[in-house]
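Session log. Operator J.P. requested a structure for one protein chain; no other inputs attached. Running the standard single-chain path with token output.
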Amino acid sequence: MNNKFLTLFVSLATCASQAQASSNNLSEIIPFNISENRADIALTEFAQQSNLTLIVPYDKVVAVETPELVGNYSVVDGAISLLDGSNLHLSVNSNGQLFIRTNNDSEDKHAMLHKNKLSTAVVLAMASLAAAQSLAQDSEATGVEEVLVTGFRGSLVKSLDEKRNSINAKETIMAEDIGKFPDLNIAESIQRVPGVAISREGGEGRNITLRGFAPSFTRTTLNGMEVPAGSDGLDSGGVTINAGRAFDFHVFASELFNRVDIQKSTTASMEEGGIAGTVDLYSAKPFDFDGFKFATSVQGSFNDLSEKTDPRLAVMVSDTFADGKLGALMSVAYSERTVRQEGFGTVRWTTPVATNNIYPTSATPVIRGEIAEDDCALNGAAVAAINCLWTPRLPRADYFANDQKRLGVTTSFQYRPNDDTLITFDALHSKLDNDRRNYNSMEWFLTHNEVTPLDITVHPDGKQILAATFDDVESWIESRDQTSESEFNQFVLSGEFKLNDALTLDAMIGKATNEADREELRFYSISESHRYSFDFTGNRHIPKVSWGEGYDYFDEANYEITTPNNRSNYVKKDNLTSKIDLTLEQDRFSIKTGLAYNDRQVESREGNGNYPAAFSAVGYLNDFPVSNFGKGLDGDLVKFPIVDFAAIYRDNRVSKEYTDNPAAAWIVDEETLAAYVALDADFDIGNMLLKTNFGVRAVKTDVTSEAWINGNAVKVERDYTNFLPSMNFSLNLTEDLVTRLSYGKTMTRPDMGSLNIAAPTFGYTTRTVANLGNPGLNPFESNDIDLGVEWYFADESLLAVNYFYKDVTTSLKTDIVEKLIDPEYHAAILADPQYDAIYNADPRTVPYTHYIPVNDNEGFEVKGYELIYQQTLSFLPGFLSNLGIVSNFTHVTAGDMTGLSENSYNVTVFYEKDNFGMRLAANYRDDYLLSLPGGNGHVAEMKYGPTHVDFSSFYNFSDNLTLTMELINLTDEKERIYGTGDGGMDLTRELNHTGRQLLLGVRYSL
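Structure written below.
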């Protein structure tokens, strides 16, 4: 945790000495008597003996030894003698504050080199609690009193320092302690940052939306290199493996990280790819700590819906050797999680006319209420008005059970042979296993002409069915057995080399791989036809349901089992990154240039199993697996019979052996080569300090898309080049007031699905091409402006407003294009048995109508503002002085953009003392768009914007032992997806919940 400041106040800071010090200056001769010692201790004595204030970056001085300083010197001459040969320097800012810096301390030196009168307290900035305790022990004889800010409050202090000192728009989240991130899930910590909202799956954060943009527009790095992370999903979140650019944060345990930076404005030295921004994740390093460090935590997690208790364990050990030249760290995090997600769904509402499939004309149902549509028609012909009423497609009770295991391991080795060289090797392994059993009790309304309405009650709006009874309905009870595994591995070797006093070389090479695979076996237990009734009168989300008199819903003799899906999916993502940066540092400016090479490859494969003929369900059905189905919901969920997987596997009804399907396989590879140059400089404007950053980045991208079409290997290669200028300004109007202005041109490459050329459909008689990706797509491009004002009006406090504007000039759309088929496909078409020359559709000479993704130069705008208020309420009397608040509000407008919540806010109230603390956090986002148009005739499909409330607390038994308690999702917030029907309706597609989660645990550290 470099450059993170904790404060040490020396008891010599008295009012009398302040009055005396007002006449002091840097040339005054002072008697010094400081023995040879560690630099942190020597500098403490230097500050005391000179009766001056001194700010020291502890992590940069702890390994430095200083000679003795005995005799009469001025402050300047004494500092020069004390720091001679140490690569440390004394500087003074315009307010008269003394700083110790290195040549690389660009954050510190911007405010230096101005002499003024000094205050009298000694302030030592230190990197960790362990370091602070070590210094306190060494300084007891000198009467030093320490004031340490740790825990959640300490992480906020460090995060504010990072934000304040950054030249670009940036947010930072720091670990509260070693292996203790503020939340159980990285995504859930990031959501508390202004401008960020998250999507959840199974009650756990998975993807983030930054400033209104979909997850694929946010670039994510880990230990300095861009990384892939993907897994499969529940039915509510998507049933395929993530093969795109979106980063699945739930793959990683939060205990593996000690810092997250969210870069909201760009610089030339940052790698391209994130129009929304970049999320930088960092794992711990041994040189983050002073010597030996050990931490472990054990938690038991209880969910009140599943009524299961699961373990969560983490341990980290770190040490330095050979006089601080070598360091090694290892951390392990393991957790199990029993997820039970249940509710009711309709799998969308629709009307018979929207599906071109109307009720039998012989049906004469009883109609209760008034139907608003008095001119119902299908293909221009009048039909009964009931065919324009919205009705559930597949009304069903839903049950998703998931047993999850997550393992994370990090190792880090560092070698610092001298002050000019630092070599680091980081390795990270993460594995996420999911075993799911999913059950749904669907009633089949997809073919309206096969069901007979008997009695219909019309909703007061006249547009939808409120309650009804139908005959000739079949039950299609779905049972799914899913197993999935996502394994991530990353290896990064990096080095920092100080070539001379002004020139520094940074180099890095890294490899990251994510492999995700899933096997899914799905059965339908299809019943005989029967009567079925539903009634939404008392609950618009969960109806009362019943079956016809005399029909036994649970009799297995009434069912036949079919196998609609027996398939495996596999996605492998590989990233190779290498880069080199050269920095020239001068007193008031620095020049940085570098090269970066990336090779990103995504490979997707699919396997098919066998599909047996339908067989009787007798002997192959089980009772529903839980007794309290529907617990915590307002409506009643009716249990239903489910497939007995063990019996089916025992009798070899279905084989879980899979054969590769070459037609569904594809590979997309991107190679990029980038170069940049950037200039950082600072200027004095009166009493104000202006920090500037200018740069330009150029990057060439080569795209290769491969697939197997009609047994032919097809490869399409395309390339494009982008130039990305950027500039950032940070002006310190006063000591507490900072303004920022940023401009940057950014880009996001097309998602992999748009570049994938597998399994196209060529219509030779119609001369059409469909289901074909376009490797020739250019990326999304945007011109971004950020403007912010930050007022650090008190200690640990901030009031800020940020305005952002993104003009996306190049985007994507699916369009109809008349053109010749690209020559790469000719051989595959001519080898297709369905192609015949008599069609006069020779792809080499005859244009085809393509339905493909293309670039759209009309673009769109995203704009909004963020408000931030953060304060520790230390001015309040008594125990109230331990209270604090962290809050933010974000407003974004961007038209019809999926994943965008126009308004979102976060509020955290905390109370923290030395041995006890607690906090209550609420996170809210508006409803947001999932698709436009929506499916099955809906104008749009939306997702409900939930409010999640979490609570956490701790009690310190000692400096080493802590008791923790956390409550996740206190209100058991429901997740809901709904369609808008004709545009103004609210028709629930699904409503579900996962319950509350209680975690009790202990932490021990040395």
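Operator note: Confidence is low (pLDDT under 50) at residues 1-24, 104-148.
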